[in-house]
């Protein structure tokens, strides 16, 4: 029997057949690796680029409208990954913000239930880096290290372990009942709406339903703090200075929610705060218990005052 065509494998993968996706990726692994080596040289960076291409394909296979073009599509993804790696040490410009509702932000970042089921089987030390790497703006090794509070070398080793474990878990969970994400999405929508309202009004009572009273948090100064009222006070101070925030995206899973926010400095103080922040919220299914943050940079020479 002849091997199935790429188009057949893509269509099967788009219906949730993880095995078909695995077959498609393995079929082109050698070619992808050769191209990665040509762009990045021999070594772990080329291998990482192929792994990154596989995970991106996992996320975006539903968006491939021409299944017969799978090979060219994978090569395009790989080349983009390699170019990003070549630019890794350069400051990447923050994209122009676009405003949309919290519900739309959640929908835009929604993953298929079976992918989240597999992700949630990873331990938190592995799950958080891979979620940040592929589903947030805090995707560089340096940003992930900043959020997780570990060295860059640890980030790389955890990502390698997470990729290998995730591949196994996807195969293991493909035929299982998948996580019901409705409750998680409702929690994310509730939090996003509360934070949006708080940034507009400064009414700290809005945070009672989404943050525990002794919430732990780390802001731009990297100082660990505790307390919902203190968190509200620090944010309110920046609001009074004219800083405004807008929810860009919300990514949620069991016990973990990633919130992307745009921060707008007042016109008279354009460097008052960084342009964006990625927040990681650890929650108990009802309210956030811990907040870690990573702030986007404006330029290497700027030392802008950081906003929470």
Structural class: alpha+beta
Radius of gyration: 20 Å
Shape field: elongated
Strand order, largest beta sheet: 2-1-6-5-4-3
State the end-to-end CA separation: 60 Å
The CATH class label of the largest domain is Alpha Beta
Contiguous uncertain segments of 5+ residues: 91-111, 299-308
H/E series: HHHHHHHHHHEEHEEEE
Helical percent range?
Answer: 40-55%
Strand content: 5-15%
CATH fold annotation of the largest domain: Nuclear Transport Factor 2, Chain: A
* Count of strand segments: 6
User: How many helices does DSSP assign?
Assistant: 11
Largest sheet: 6 strands, mixed
Domain tally = 3
Please state the average pLDDT score: 76
CATH architecture of the largest domain: Roll
Can you characterise this structure?
This protein is of the alpha+beta class. It has three domains: 6-86, Orthogonal Bundle (Rna Polymerase Sigma Factor, Chain: A); 112-173, Orthogonal Bundle (Arc Repressor Mutant, subunit A), CATH 1.10.10; 182-295, Nuclear Transport Factor 2, Chain: A (Roll), CATH 3.10.450. The chain is built from eleven helices and six strands. It has a six-stranded mixed β-sheet, sandwiched between helices. Strand 3 and strand 4 (256-264) form a beta hairpin. Helix 2 packs across helix 4 (70-86). The radius of gyration is 20 Å and the shape is elongated. Residues 91-111 and 299-308 have low confidence and may be disordered.
């Amino acid at each position: 029997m002849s091997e199935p065509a790429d188009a057949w494998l893509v269509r099967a993968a788009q219906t949730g057949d993880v095995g078909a996706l695995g077959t498609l990726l393995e079929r082109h692994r050698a070619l992808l690796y050769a191209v990665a080596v040509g762009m990045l040289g021999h070594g772990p960076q080329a291998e990482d680029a192929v792994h990154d291409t596989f995970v991106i394909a996992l996320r975006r296979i539903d968006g491939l409208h021409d299944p017969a073009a799978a090979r060219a599509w994978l090569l395009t993804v790989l080349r983009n990954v390699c170019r990003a790696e070549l630019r890794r040490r350069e400051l990447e410009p923050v994209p122009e913000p676009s405003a949309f509702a919290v519900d739309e932000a959640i929908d835009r970042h929604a993953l298929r239930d079976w992918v989240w089921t597999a992700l949630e089987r990873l331990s938190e030390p592995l799950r958080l880096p891979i979620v940040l790497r592929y589903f947030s703006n805090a995707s560089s090794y340096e940003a992930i290290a900043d959020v997780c509070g570990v060295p860059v070398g640890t980030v790389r080793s955890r990502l390698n372990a997470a990729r290998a474990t995730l591949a196994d878990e996807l195969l293991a969970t493909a035929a299982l009942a998948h996580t019901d994400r409705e409750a998680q999405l409702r929690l994310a929508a509730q939090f996003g709406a509360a934070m949006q309202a708080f940034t507009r009004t400064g009414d700290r009572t809005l945070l009672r339903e989404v943050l525990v009273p002794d919430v732990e948090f780390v802001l731009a100064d990297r100082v660990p703090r505790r307390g919902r009222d203190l968190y509200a006070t620090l944010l309110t101070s920046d609001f009074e200075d004219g800083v405004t925030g807008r929810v860009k995206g919300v990514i949620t899973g069991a016990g973990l929610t990633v919130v992307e926010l745009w921060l707008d400095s007042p016109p008279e103080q354009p460097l008052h705060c960084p342009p964006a922040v990625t927040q990681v919220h650890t929650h108990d299914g009802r309210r956030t218990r811990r907040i870690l943050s990573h702030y986007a940079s404006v330029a290497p020479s700027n030392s802008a005052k950081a906003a929470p």
